[in-house]
Amino acid sequence: DGVVVSEKVKSNNLDVKIPESELEAEEKGAEEDHPRESDSNILDISSDYPRDKHISIQRHLADLEKLADLREDEKKPCPLCPEEKFKACYSHKLHRHLQNLHWKVSVEFEGYRMCICHLSCRPVKPNLAGDQTLAKLGAHYHCIICSATIIRRTDMIGHINRHVNKGETESRFITVRAPKSSYEVVKESATDVQVLPNHSTPQKTDSYFNPKMKLNRQLIFCALAVLAGERKPIECLDAFGATGIMGLQWAKHLRSSVKVTINDCNENSVTMIKENCHLNKMKVKMNIKEEDNDETVGDGEENSDTIEVTKMDANVIMHLRSFDFIHLDPFGSSVNYLDSAFRNVRNLGIVSLTSTDISSLYAKAQHVALRHYGCNIVRTEYYKELAARTVIAAVTRAAARCNKGVEVLLAVALEHFVLVVVRVLRGPTPADDSAKKVRYLIHCQWCEERVFQKEGNMVEENPYQQLPCDCHGSMPGKTAVLLGPLWSGALFNTGFLRRMLLEAVQYGLDEAQPLLKTLVCEAECTTLKHFSTHSPGDENKQEECGVYIKTPNTSAESYLVHGKRKSEEVLRGAAKRPRAEHSAEHPPFYYNIHRHSIKGMNMPKLNKFLNYLSEAGYRVSRTHFDPMGVRTSAPLAQFKTVLMKYSTPTYVGAQAEGPVHLPGEIQVGEEVPAAAEIKVEGAELVEDNKSGVAAAVFTQPYPTHCAAD
């Protein structure tokens, strides 16, 4: 066990194709040394040609002592030290030497110990004195995986950890190639994928898989399913495949409706995508430039269970080919791939992109947002919607450079990502209309009021007049900042979201259904209790981009036929049709009810507050951007007035019943009128010893903090 056989090693070296330079080094060096091999040669080693491990790699100390052949009556040299470093000695002294100098400083990996070696295995430059003999006595370790020689023990530990992070845990010295036990099989939406142990670290693995992005994948699948219902078949591209989980879900559930292409520029990722395709019983269609093997199919054998796997840069494949659906999910920002995505995307196709550079989009690294998106942003209460509009503005400018316009179908900004789904409209007129919706935003830093800058090129004398608030007149200095350029149009398309919800119900995507219901309510600016799956007029046809799109209940007289597109005259004629009533744009941005709460007052429940705003005649809904956010058409002043009206005062001794009726609008920081002007229902029922406390509270100016005493 562990004894080196020279003839066997040399016979196997011929088959492994060791470079000539290493063969010369082996002839000149010690016979125990094994030459290095490249990573490609390591993978080519089969079970027919096993390799023996280096003598410094052993499982037990007894195995190391067997190499010395310890006997009481004879002096034996150390098998890991040259004669000039450690002279031959008797067994008891050699045992202590092996234990203290080699075994205790070893590096352990999967039951093996990589002991320190002092043999002349590692070519070392001569020392300053020119002594070649002492230069060859450098201590080092032999890696059990790649047979590299490392000098320091800490470097050896880091070297092994890098192998583990890359999934390279199989030793090149194992005689039979072990099964890929290091792979972990993950199942999501009836799709199995195998990933590496460090699959959650994108910069250190070739098979990045984030379970927290399951909701993102479900939303993209619903959008693709809606597009597949409009025309068949559609060519879709997952530009950054990683494990291929998203493309596999498309092909497994949508079958013949889609032709899936999964791309990745990393060779290891492409190999794993192919293995995952076979794991899900999908055939792989290789790229023309790649070599064919027995498991791939040719062009003539293509069917619904075939996935095309390509290995090239995402910009290259999007420049070379046209697609109906493109999804971009790089590590970080997607701005480097937008020009290529809109170059060849087909008319009325869909481009979806997931941006995970939330540090810049959420205004934590404002200089990065300015560098990547050309947008000036600050941290506000509506920072998530600000991030979504920043990404859409970059998408709109990229599409306009290709003479294409966009209609935003979906914009979602959650904790880990920002997802934007747009439909592409070909032509300079849609491009101009979309470009006009990219405008600057005026934001007041005192009261958080905001308004988009008016269209036009004329310079206004006082841009503060566009803000509904009067903070500039009452506060010293400059009170507002100019943010943007941002997308000023709608963030949702109600008809498309309703069809996405139907697809989510059909395929049983439980996590996406609550979010889609919230998005439909947000798009229509209504509360959830008024939500209905089928709104009037939506059963037969939906209108998007001025074009009527066929739905399951639509008759055959639709403007889009399966697999075909009508002429430009028909599309232009359809574009002139008026939009439906349900496509009215929702109010931009939202208010956080906690951000504008009044100190010393108890706010009403959020759902009740929505009813109060609705009774006041304003459009109102909740928003997915913020669980305590309220999207409403009411100005901030009216928002605060309603919030103050239905808030109850907090004090010790008595609790007011019902809303507080205030005469007119009250801003934060103003004094509350005298107690005679405030009517609190049930105040007369308070006991005498408590009425004095109440009178003392209401006769003073409005408190700036909650009374705790």
UniProtKB/TrEMBL annotation:
Per UniProt, the ranges with Basic and acidic residues bias are 26-39
Give the record's keywords alphabetically: Isopeptide bond, Metal-binding, Methyltransferase, Nucleus, Phosphoprotein, RNA-binding, S-adenosyl-L-methionine, Transferase, tRNA processing, tRNA-binding, Ubl conjugation, Zinc, Zinc-finger
- Give a Gene Ontology cellular component term annotated to this protein: nucleolus
One GO MF term, please? tRNA binding
InterPro entries with a match to the protein in the record: SAM-dependent_MTases_sf, Trm1, tRNA_met_Trm1_C, Znf_C2H2_type
The catalytic activity, as recorded, is: guanosine(27) in tRNA(Tyr) + 2 S-adenosyl-L-methionine = N(2)-dimethylguanosine(27) in tRNA(Tyr) + 2 S-adenosyl-L-homocysteine + 2 H(+)
One GO biological process this protein is involved in is: tRNA N2-guanine methylation
| Domain called C2H2-type: residue spans | 143-163
Q: Where is this region: Disordered?
A: 1-47
Gene3D superfamilies from the entry? N2,N2-dimethylguanosine tRNA methyltransferase, C-terminal domain, Vaccinia Virus protein VP39
Compartments (UniProt record): Nucleus, Nucleolus
Record family assignment: Belongs to the class I-like SAM-binding methyltransferase superfamily. Trm1 family.
Protein name per its UniProtKB record:
tRNA (guanine(27)-N(2))-dimethyltransferase
